Amino acid sequence: MKLNKLLLIPLLTTALIACDNPAKVKSSPEMFAANFAFTACVRHAGEGEKLTALFNKSGINQLPDKLADSFLKGESGKAWSFTSPDGQFAITYKTDGVCTVFIKQTDADLFIAETNKVMKRISQKVGWSFSPDSIPNFAGSTTLESFTVSGKSKDSKNVNITLSATHAKSGSYQVALSTNVI
Question: Could you read off the pLDDT of 94-108 as tens digits, one per residue?
Answer without folding.
Answer: 999 999 999 999 999
